[in-house]
Design goal:
By secondary structure, this protein is an alpha/beta fold. It has 4 domains: about 80 residues, DNA Methylphosphotriester Repair Domain (3-Layer(aba) Sandwich), CATH 3.40.10; about 90 residues, Arc Repressor Mutant, subunit A (Orthogonal Bundle), CATH 1.10.10; about 60 residues, Methylated DNA-protein cysteine methyltransferase domain (Double Stranded RNA Binding Domain), CATH 3.30.160; about 80 residues, Arc Repressor Mutant, subunit A (Orthogonal Bundle), CATH 1.10.10. Helix content is about 45%, strand content about 10%. It is built from 15 helices and 10 strands. Helix 3 crosses helix 4. The protein starts with about 20 loop residues before the first helix and ends with a helix.
Length: about 350
Amino acid sequence: MRRAAARFTIPFMTHADSPIDADNAWAAVLGRDRREDGRFVTGVLSTGIYCRPSCAARHPKRSNVRFFADGAAARAAGLRACQRCRPDEVARDSAGVAKAIRAIEAADHLPRLAELAGAAGYAPHHFHRLFKRATGLTPAEYARGQRARRAERALEEDQGVTDAIYEAGFAAPSRFYAESGARLGMTPSAWRDGGRGATIRWAIAATSFGPMLVAATERGICRLSFDEDGSALAARFPHAEIAAGAAELADLVAQVVEAVEAPARVHDLPLDVRGTAFQEAVWRELARIPAGETLSYAALAVRAGKPGAARAAGSACGANPVAVLVPCHRAQRGDGSLGGYAYGLPIKEELLRRESGD
């Protein structure tokens, strides 16, 4: 169908008059980045349609593309929705995932996938893919994380361990330990009580980034930082037994130094770290970012199951107890700037430089 050219005389949107950065939006279109779906739509003037950024159709010429905040804005400009990617369903998908998240957080048990999908209006297999694409976790993984976080919150409020486990929704203490024991490292009561009963050995190693503290329990590395010493470690774990252990940790420290000096290499060093369910989800996503690449705090929040929690994702990066090994240096602000880093931006810049091979 022929359309009058005047119908598409749409001013080019710039960063100055729109929240959409045209260069970043076009990069997302070229990369078919599903994480950008719902943030804007792509108007194609030559065909008169608008699409999701991730649309699988052949890419149009850049000169024929305009970006709009949403489908309503595109329709007001005379465009119609793409029948292939169905961009107007993004809002419905987001609402369905948000509804499922609220149901999971309010439930006293692990909701069944069929229950969540039915409430959102989707078939279970489709909703499973939709939820994971939006959050980076399956509904079951997200629910288990929420349940563990409830237990952690109860422990922080100084409840008895058994009471906290049952209040969080676990059928028995054995289920809590089966799901969380390996992740917790220290027992729940020891973690709640500043490491009481745990033995942590530490050593200082020389690196090109400066003196580095390596501390470990029997299960793995619990602290890796720069310009800290045993007194700083004792402040973090006031009730643990803190012991200098250069000889006992010699082999482990050598491996840690090697991993830090060559951060692009994949390591399999044992870690014994603790955080909230959300923090640990952020740390897992950080480890999945390819070496030399970065991800925004907002994208990390989505992948960790909390869309819109960019600041909390940044705080989770700041709370990372094992620098470099959990690569929080790969997180940056949404505008492309590096943001902060606990040990200073020069170290962050150098880590990224080494990873990219520059």
